[in-house]
Amino acid sequence: MSMIVNRRDLDFLMYEMFDLDRLLTTERYGDYDREVVTAVLDTAQAIAEDKYLPCAAELDANEPTFDGKDVHIMPEVKAALEAYAEAGFFSASFDEAVGGMQMPFMVSSALGGIFTCANMGIASYAFLTQANAGMLAALGTASQKDMFLGPMLAGRWFGTMCLSEPQAGSSLSDIRTKAVADGDGRYLISGTKMWISGGDQNISENIIHMVLARIPGGPPGVKGLSLFIVPKYRVNEDGTLGADNNIALAGLNHKMGHRGTTNCLLNFGESGDCHGTLIGEPHRGLSYMFHMMNEARTGVGYGAVMSGLAGYLYSLDYARHRPQGRHPHEKDPVTPQVMIIEHADVKRMLMAQKAYVEGGLSLVTYCAGLIDAQAVTDDPAEQGRLGLLLDILTPIAKSWPSEYCLEANKHAIQILGGYGYTREYPVERFYRDNRLNHIHEGTHAIHGIDLLGRKVRMREGAALEALEREVRQTIDQAREVAGLSGYARELGSAFDMLRDTAGRVAQTKNVNLMLANATAYLDAFGHVVVAWLWLQQAQAALKGLAGNGGEQDFYNGKLAACQYFFRYELPTVDSRFALVASLDDTCLMASPEQFIGQ
Amino acid sequence: MSMIVNRRDLDFLMYEMFDLDRLLTTERYGDYDREVVTAVLDTAQAIAEDKYLPCAAELDANEPTFDGKDVHIMPEVKAALEAYAEAGFFSASFDEAVGGMQMPFMVSSALGGIFTCANMGIASYAFLTQANAGMLAALGTASQKDMFLGPMLAGRWFGTMCLSEPQAGSSLSDIRTKAVADGDGRYLISGTKMWISGGDQNISENIIHMVLARIPGGPPGVKGLSLFIVPKYRVNEDGTLGADNNIALAGLNHKMGHRGTTNCLLNFGESGDCHGTLIGEPHRGLSYMFHMMNEARTGVGYGAVMSGLAGYLYSLDYARHRPQGRHPHEKDPVTPQVMIIEHADVKRMLMAQKAYVEGGLSLVTYCAGLIDAQAVTDDPAEQGRLGLLLDILTPIAKSWPSEYCLEANKHAIQILGGYGYTREYPVERFYRDNRLNHIHEGTHAIHGIDLLGRKVRMREGAALEALEREVRQTIDQAREVAGLSGYARELGSAFDMLRDTAGRVAQTKNVNLMLANATAYLDAFGHVVVAWLWLQQAQAALKGLAGNGGEQDFYNGKLAACQYFFRYELPTVDSRFALVASLDDTCLMASPEQFIGQ
């Protein structure tokens, strides 16, 4: 079995759950069929197993260093990214019109996931570049695209996103970096950016920063932010590299995990000579950022699922081969030890990991499918409906895997016991890597507020209604199926609570009180969504069992995980929804002095 | 505010909750009064802040190394332990008769906690030595005590516990290390021991290993294990050090956390010349180990609480001083940013930490008080009652803080955001350190099985009854108090579920099924116990508020944390008890092949 991907599960999601076949019949994806998709994923898996996986532990133990002048990164990183570039994967999800492979997002996400699972530290350089290039492709002028997009999609130049500053992390409203027009159509950028992943490195020929900054005289707050392209080296008209653009690496941050990717404090324009080019119109920078936010945030969720998957696969393999202890009924100490997968609590921890990881994977794959569906429909009503679903599910797709696939990693360590707690085994690394995902691309708290304060109320509840229609459809189908009708009923009650809680909370005029328990709401909402997707997985598994009579283990495993989710997980939402609905103010009313009494 | 201890909370627990005053009137502890206790803790805090805390981050970043011959450890470690020894603290909890300070366990635990909170890596060397010396004091012959105890209580020789082997971690039944009598009253020890904390170091003059091994011809399994004293250097009759005792360090394990303490793979008697001395009688080694188990396991819980406390104090201080963002009702971006402690979700994460950490501290302090009470009573019935309470609470005291104070550390990282995820700040270290506690001194699963399979049933439920009497007494008192009667009712219902669930589970004859969800039972049981202790804290806080009218913040903070626990935490037990009571077999019945379908 592979340690970085369960291809059978990917196929199940793409073909048996989310009908990739139908998508591949559309004009946009006409170049793809099952065979091509399989070949693409085969290539990805081969590169990832050959170039990414073998150096993952070493890269974690030997993070990039900065000697005050240059950044040093293990050479395996560059070699791996060259293989990735050679396969054309930097351009996987881009349109043919700009030289891309025009892959369905469902497929390019799966492809990316394989690399993430193998080596998060290397994979991140490519994903940041793709996110940056995605904004360029969507928002850049023809000449901006001419200049930057080609080298990025070829993997020769990498990209970053520069939003945060030391005094402005979650609060982008407080960004201070300045951009002053120099009269020649350029802007002079000055300021300090913090937490810039890939902000400096010695891998690519150039680094293209996407920078949020303020044009003096604009409105305060987020309405005065503009977006700029700021390259490390200036680019001449003919595409060759010009002078150094006055961006100084002030230092590297040293993280608990994600140690393979540089994370930088950057000073722009210390000597007053850092050139940037405006993207789109002035003062619209944040709205441009939000343009790409759903994909970026779903991408974080995808990454969290992949850390979870890496731990799940490793601990499953370990549990099958590690003898230790005997069954509770076995009192004779001279009988052989059993493999630990025989112990009920190890099975519980594996089943929990399966339910979290495969549940999370179904969630992010469903979201990817919504993005694909948007790309192939011209119907404005359908576009609107898909957009609403994506809007309401994005906070879940980002946050739920962050929380529960981290929990999965905790279980993976536990299954390996003392060994799992050492750096000689990879599971503690996955646990360290995964802890980041609650923090970046909007903290957990921010997504709670986004969900309860905005998404469930937007357009008079239209997004929540769009989701409810989907959920009720699954419930209506499952209600008629032997073995699933109980789950259908339980999911229906849980959704009632979810909706009623949003309604109860909306009745207060006190916005601080309304949002005081938004994180608990986010958490419980996620459980309902994933229960819904598990019920769909069970439906597909029953169909699979009826269809060919083979692969009993695979399909029965899906049914078991669905059962686990409805018995062990979904019942926990009741107390959380009740808490949120009660508008409890215990925490909100606590004064700073009460915490330790001084 | 101190970053390593909340002295006000220690005083609250010792004097306002658990009546240390009364204990100090007993003959055994006649040398102590409040003033002496305060002076002792002052000294501990001063040494910990001066010698332990300043090098904690550096020790984590520069773990001990082994060059194939010698172990190298930062010199600050030795200096810190010398200061600890000079204060006499190695002997804190030992009887005056053996040269100890004869401190109440409640006080010596608090003292130890201060050092743990400051620098877990250093503190562990002392605690391992004290645990080893405790067994010697209880079980050793006069000549064994003469030879070993004095240097250990003076901190000149350190001690270890050698139980695990590579093939025998949780399953001590499978230990293979041999001890062959040489006819001179000595035993020749041979075998490999794994995970030995402090197993080698360059700090103390000698290392005294306490080793579980098998005398050939004994019964198989745990009933054939004997316990031996095995020194690194042999000890001459006059107490001077003799020859090297043929114990080879085969390698150091590299852990995710706890990086300051060496953790070793040791080969005993590779050349056939490793001498050991039997403790007590042959084949009774494991029962001797269990003799000290309650204290050792409560000690693990105490350590988990201290990692939690370290993160709580740090993140609280940070939240008070980090400006970021504005209240939800504030729409004007030019108003100043507020300190993040003003945000509802930061308050929630601080309150959760407070509830977990101070709740956990009350639990382990209560257990320490039970041990103290045992030491001063001659009444066999009272001894029995105290023993039963300790027996049933030990799995909780070990496991509940491991789970929930790790969760506290997760929140501490989140409060610091990106900064919290870097090694430039200490909170990620606490999170890494704390993850060990589910694993050592009996895994989480083992404590669940111990609780549900043994402790709740022992002596026809006598331990559970003893606990219930205590809980009902608190409920009866709280029922009459305005503001607490609701909690009293809820705690009563929760305890009913706890007891009824144990009864339901006991009805099956299938022991594998009976124990299949023991971990969930352990978890929910812990929440009920901590809710009970929070209700007691609230009672004491109301008394404090009525008594002097001062310290409003401290006491109101206790009431707020109690309210948090009853509103946010206790309601979660219902679904867990229901699951256990249903004898759910979802995980138990899953086959190894179903997890990924191959």
Report on the architecture of this protein:
The structure is a homodimer of 598-residue chains. Chain A is of the alpha+beta class. Helices cover 56% and strands 11% of the residues of chain A. Chain A has 19 helices and 12 strands. In chain A, the strands form 3 sheets. In chain A, strands 3, 4, 5, 6, 7, 10, 11 and 12 form an 8-stranded mixed β-sheet that branches. In chain A, strands 1-2 form a two-stranded antiparallel ribbon. In chain A, helix 3 runs parallel beside helix 6, helix 10 runs antiparallel to helix 11 and helix 14 packs parallel to helix 17. Chains A and B meet through helix 9, helix 10, helix 11, helix 12 and helix 13 of A and helix 9, helix 10, helix 11, helix 12 and helix 13 of B.
Set out the fold topology:
The structure is a homodimer of 598-residue chains.
Chain A: H1 7-17, H2 20-24, H3 34-52, H4 56-61, E1 65-66, E2 71-72, H5 75-86, H6 105-118, H7 120-139, H8 142-153, E3 157-162, E4 178-181, E5 187-197, E6 206-214, E7 225-231, E8 233-235, E9 241-244, E10 247-252, E11 263-268, E12 275-279, H9 285-321, H10 344-376, H11 380-416, H12 427-434, H13 444-455, H14 458-479, H15 485-506, H16 511-514, H17 518-548, H18 552-569, H19 573-581
Parallel strand pairs in A: 3-6
Antiparallel strand pairs in A: 1-2, 4-5, 5-11, 5-12, 6-7, 7-12, 8-9, 10-11
Helix pairs in contact in A: 1-17, 3-5, 3-6, 6-7, 6-9, 6-10, 7-8, 7-9, 9-10, 9-11, 9-12, 10-11, 10-17, 10-18, 11-12, 11-13, 11-14, 11-17, 13-17, 14-15, 14-17, 15-17, 15-19, 17-18, 17-19
